[in-house]
Design goal:
Elements lengths: L3 E12 L2 E12 L3 E6 L5 H8 L5 E8 L2 E2 L5 H5 L3 E4 L11 H8 L11 H10 L1 H5 L10 H12 L6 E5 L7 H16 L3 E5 L3 H7 L2 E6 L2 E7 H5 L2 H8 L4
Parallel strand pairs: 3-8, 3-9, 6-7, 7-8
Antiparallel strand pairs: 1-2, 1-4, 4-5, 9-10
Helix pairs in contact: 3-6
Length: about 240
């Protein structure tokens, strides 16, 4: 199947008295990596949390694979094979890496029931996950925690992977490893929606891009077109890629 896997149409989100999203229109093409860019406070994280039902859309429609998910509770949204890696990663610090992975593998009650081939593939993407398999997750470095967070999200096959700033605070070498891993995930056919502030990360990985400002999508198109247009970059982001 082709076309858009996820669409947001006129989505508004209120958090308490604050009106954060002001009619977001966003399309995420099936099998592609879509970058969601914008200055701090533009509404990117709120958009991801609204997709996942963690914050409820007060107006508009969210559609996943042709199904209206706007009013679904978060567990049902996750049950549609949508994985979400929040900015804070959500690692269970007191559990081992292995226990964190087992919790995410909904089809397994014991580690031995996790798909062995898939686990081997994840270890190839993120060797640190295998290296620290029996270590408490809270003892990992920031980069290792981020690798674990993404690994948990893909321990079972997903239709859509949503990740909020995977390179934040990471050393350049770890960022390069993360870029390679997301490139491999793209080649595996998973659809990815990625919020990112690292422009090199966006340029190297993005197929399509949407730029947010003041709670709205103000630009959408091909990532390569934005990467080649310095005037558009300055106008939308205040910088040059």
């Amino acid at each position: 199947m082709s076309g858009d896997l996820l669409t947001l149409s006129g989505v508004h989100t209120h958090i308490g008295a604050y009106h954060i999203l002001h009619g977001v229109d966003l399309s995420v093409p099936r099998g592609k990596l879509t970058m969601l860019l914008g200055r701090n406070g533009a509404g990117k994280t709120t958009t991801l949390r609204t997709i996942m039902g963690l914050w409820r859309a007060s107006q508009g429609r969210i559609t996943f694979d042709g199904k209206d998910i706007t009013a679904l509770p978060t567990p049902q949204i996750a049950g549609l094979n949508i994985a979400y890696v929040p900015e804070n990663m959500g690692i269970f610090a007191d559990l081992t890496v292995k226990e964190n992975m087992l919790l995410a593998a909904r089809g397994a009650k014991r580690v031995e029931q996790i798909d062995g081939e898939r686990l081997k593939w994840i270890f190839q993407l993120f060797p640190a996950v295998e290296k620290f398999w029996n270590h408490p997750a809270g003892k990992l470095s920031g980069g290792q925690k981020q690798m674990l967070a993404v690994s948990r999200a893909i321990v079972e096959k997903r239709e859509l992977l949503i990740v909020d700033e995977p390179s934040k605070g990471l050393a350049p070498a770890i960022i390069n490893n993360m870029i390679e891993a997301f490139g491999e995930l793209k080649r595996s056919g998973v659809t990815i929606l990625l919020v990112e502030q690292n422009i090199n990360f966006a340029k190297r990985l993005g197929d399509t891009v949407a730029v947010m400002d003041n709670g709205q999508v103000v630009h959408s198109g091909l990532m390569k077109d934005l990467a080649e247009d310095e005037e558009l970059q300055h106008r939308l982001l205040g910088l040059a890629i």
